Structures are given as C-alpha cells and as structure tokens.
Amino acid sequence: MIRRPTRRPDTLRVAVLAWACACASAAAPVPAAQPGLMQAAAVNDAPADAPPGDIAGYWISEKLDGVRGRWDGRRLWTRAGHAIDPPDWFTAGWPQKAMDGELWLGRGRFDEVAALLRRSSNDDAWRAVRFLVFDLPGHGGPFAARVETMRTLPGAGAPPWLRAVAQSQVADAAGLQARLAAVLAAGGEGLMLHHGAALYTAGRSEGLRKLKPHDDAEARVLAHLPGNGKYAGMLGALLVERADGARFRLGSGLSDAERATPPPVGSLVTYRYNGYTGNGLPRFARFLRIRTPAEAPGQR
After folding, report:
1. Which tens digits make up the pLDDT trace of 66-88?
2. CB-CB contact of 260 with 234 (8 Å)
3. 30-49 as b/e, with b when 16 or more CB fall inside 10 Å?
4. Exactly one of 63, 97, 210, 230 is catalytic; which is it?
C-alpha cells in the first residue's frame, strides 16, 4: 500500500498560495484526449509570475478517486470512449441530457470501481456505486449556471445513486487552504476548482484546475529491471517511457506481489510524483497502479 506523504502546514500553505498566483493564467493549449471532454490543468501548468487569481470566483469540489464517466442521455461511456454496461436499473430514470461525472464507491476505493467495470453488469456490487455529476457538457451556460442546474438533480423519478457533486466557494487563500487540509485529512486526493465564468470546452482549460499535494501521470512499461538484495530474483524497477519520450525508472511503491508478477511490458501504469527535477524528469516518482481497460489515462 502506498502511504500518503505527510504534508507540513507550511508546505500546504505554499501549494495553496502558488495556486492563487497561477489560476488566472492560461496554460499552453493541449489537445483533448477525447473530443468533447473538458480536462483540468494542474496548478503548476501556469507561469510562476502569473498575476493573482480570483479565488472567490471559483467553485470548489473534492477531486474524487473514481472512474470518470459520461452519460450521453442514453448510454454511459468512459473517458476513452469505451461503453460502460451497468445493470439496466442503475441508469433507469436518468435525465436525457449529457452529464459528466464520476463512478464512485468512496475514498481510496478506485481499484474496486475499476474492477467492477470489468465484471458482469448484473453484479450486486453496483448497488453501492454512485454516479456523482460534476458538469453538464450540453448546458451552454457558464459554470455558475451549470451548478444551479446540477443542484436540481436527480429530479423526479431519478434514483438516489445519481447525485451532483457538492460545490462551494471560499473567500480567500486561507479558506482554500482549510478546505484542502480537511479533504486530505479525510483521505481525499485534493480539490477541483472551476471558475464560475468558464464555459464547457473540450481539452485542457485554465478555467478548471486541480489542486493536490502531488501529481499523477502515465507512462508505458519498456522493460523489467532485476532486483538486488531482498529483491533478488524479483523485479527491482520498471523502466518506463512518457508520451514525450523521456525514460526513467519506477522502483518505489511496488508491493512484493507486484514485484513477483509485474505489469507486463507494453502496459500503461500510473505513477505519482512531486514536481520535476532540473532535467524535467518526475521527482520522487513511485508506482501507483496499472491502468485498466475500463479506465482512461489522465482523469480530470
């Protein structure tokens, strides 16, 4: 199990203040991985000398550790465009409008949700799943108006497992810091910050940002490197490659079971890191999990 790194109060304060300086600046445009889906920019995507941001203008929600799903009014899809086939009763009574959200079981239960999507659609475990809506792609109005519409969910006839993600606002950096600290203390990943004036647009948007004490990314496994000492005869590290061609090793974060049966060469894995080194490689990179077919790389 990967332990959440302890976050010193002063370090947490720096992260929040860094966001305050960065949130108003436009990040370099990145093509959308899936047409029609809005993606969040990380806090550090903006230049360090960006002007102060309007924190009070953002709506804040918890960054959920689930599988992103998009309801097109008739069917549920993953971010990568794979069909999700829950039991018929799960989507019965859902609105015939596009909804962007998260299939969620609870904090720290991502693996269970991902596994569920690979099993029979009649699995009773679906009764514990919720679809938490965080946006309405077809609404057309600014996010503040979309929040008001989402608050009317589930609407008449909709089931209780369809709900809108809780959205709230804070006045300043101190309020944002307190909210982030509370979510992390409860076992959450971080926060999502969506500017009230932002329209729903495909691709990464400076109007939607994620704030958390670490970053996640994906890389492809190129080779299995042998271990030494207590890991003799097992995997020592994964040699991986990012989409931009940069290569590095992932040794930390692997359990003994994963070292005995490592992610296959060619598979995509998620790693967690804390910023970058001077040569652009991830700092303190550690293995998090192997990507599953039901999950799309790069959650919001």
Report:
1. 999 999 999 999 888 889 999 99
2. yes
3. eeebbebbbbbbbbebbeee
4. 63
